[in-house]
Design goal:
It is built from 13 helices and 17 strands. The chain is an alpha/beta fold. It has a seven-stranded mixed beta sheet, sandwiched between helices. The radius of gyration is 21 Å and the shape is globular.
Length: 398
């Protein structure tokens, strides 16, 4: 393991703050490092490993497809791509899909689609996109400008124009920035990097209605909330709205790199041949993995499991908030939960790692829990026990 770390430091760029661990394999909700130490995973590859590790149906689908076609150009029809598009559309809203390789690419594609749709109807002036404070939508030059965190933007200017922010869950703020030049609004059903902050139902319903009145497209960023994580297949389904465009990635193919843009038919048709593309987007292997993943989520009722297990998990976290003064709040739905602390969370993450648990901190002081959807109550109980030990130590030391 040390050799991997040493050579990684020599040959890889230093843009990640990595822990000094390298994993060799996983099984279920557990991963093992090269020293054969076991860790229970509540990070899930940052909401990617939605089926956990070594899932047989996913492995078999990847193995079978790898022996037929790994890649072929989008100049041709790809059977697994068509099948995955059909599954996504039939389980969300009537529309069409475009496939790419990541969440940032999906959001980039959604911006381009929204602008092209508005351009075809109104001309070049209707091009502004409204995002929300606390948001995170990616790290490309365009999506950086939908991301409400100055540290991600520093040193990468000049920045593209045409992006504005409204205060999250504040309808008056939204009305102030909405203009005749607005072509789209993008939101996360639960802000991940923003501290596991859910959208308010009343707010997003009012936003949706204003969008309809002004022919503004509503984009749901489901990169992190999608694929059953919140207790429904997609996070917007909690709020009795339907977006015009939806972006999906992370858990879509259980660990294979893929992203998707789903748009209502009349919006999707704004893209014509040559308007947008991706060499690797929707290749046969990634889409075969996506089909296997989505079929497993639906067939094994993993969204329903996320709802049920998530309620249990949330109750356990609320117990911690009642017992320890260091815990300020519990937020989230399903298996996308956050524990807000009164102190920075990095030390807690480090202590949990030492005790054999993978967790994460976002927005400086919010512990983020986004485990595989197959997590069980026994793993949750073990985590709560470890967090109790950590908070006990912190309060004794204070």
């Amino acid at each position: 393991m040390q050799n991997i770390i040493d050579e990684g430091q020599k040959y890889l760029m230093s843009n990640y703050g990595r822990f000094p661990i390298s994993f060799s394999h996983g099984e279920g909700c557990r991963v093992y490092d090269y020293n054969q130490r076991e860790y229970i995973d509540f990070l899930g590859g940052v909401a990617v490993n939605i089926l956990g590790y070594n899932n047989k149906k996913l492995n078999d689908a990847i193995a079978a497809q790898s022996q037929k076609l790994i890649h072929i150009s989008n100049y041709f029809w790809i059977d697994t791509q068509v099948k995955l598009a059909k599954l996504l559309v039939e389980n969300s809203f009537d529309g069409k899909a475009f496939f790419c390789n990541s969440g940032a690419e999906a959001n980039e594609g959604a911006i381009k689609l929204a602008r092209k749709y508005a351009y075809r109807k109104y001309g070049i002036q209707k091009n502004e996109v409204i995002a929300m404070t606390g948001s995170f939508h990616g790290r490309t030059l365009a999506t950086l400008n939908l991301t409400d965190n100055p540290k991600y933007k520093e040193g990468f200017g000049p920045h593209p124009e045409g992006f504005k922010f409204a205060k999250f869950n504040d309808i008056d703020s939204f009305k102030q920035v909405l203009t005749k030049n607005t072509c789209a609004v993008i939101f996360e059903p639960i802000q991940g990097e923003g501290g596991i902050t859910p959208v308010d139902s009343d707010f997003i319903k009012k936003v949706s209605e204003l969008c309809k009145q002004n022919d503004v497209l509503l984009i749901a960023d489901e990169i992190q909330t999608g694929m059953g994580r919140t207790g429904k297949l997609f996070g917007y389904q909690h709020h009795d709205i339907t977006p015009d465009i939806m972006t999906v990635a992370k858990g879509l193919a259980g660990g294979c790199a893929i992203g998707a843009v789903i748009a209502k038919v009349e919006v999707a048709d704004a893209f014509q041949s040559g308007d947008h593309g991706s060499t690797f987007g929707g290749n046969p292997l990634a889409c075969a993995a996506g089909v296997a993943t989505l079929e497993t989520i639906l067939g094994d009722e993993l969204a329903e499991n996320a709802e049920k297990i998530g309620e249990y998990f949330k109750l356990k976290l609320q117990y911690l908030s009642q017992k320890y003064s260091v815990v300020k709040a519990v937020r989230g739905h399903g298996l996308m939960l956050g524990l807000e602390l009164s102190i920075p969370g990095a030390a807690v993450v480090q202590k949990a790692l030492y005790k054999g648990f993978l967790i994460n901190c976002t927005a400086t002081n919010v512990l983020r829990f986004i485990p595989p959807l197959i997590i069980g109550t026994s793993e949750i109980d073990l985590l709560i026990e470890i967090l109790s030990e950590i908070f006990e130590e912190l309060e004794l030391a204070a």
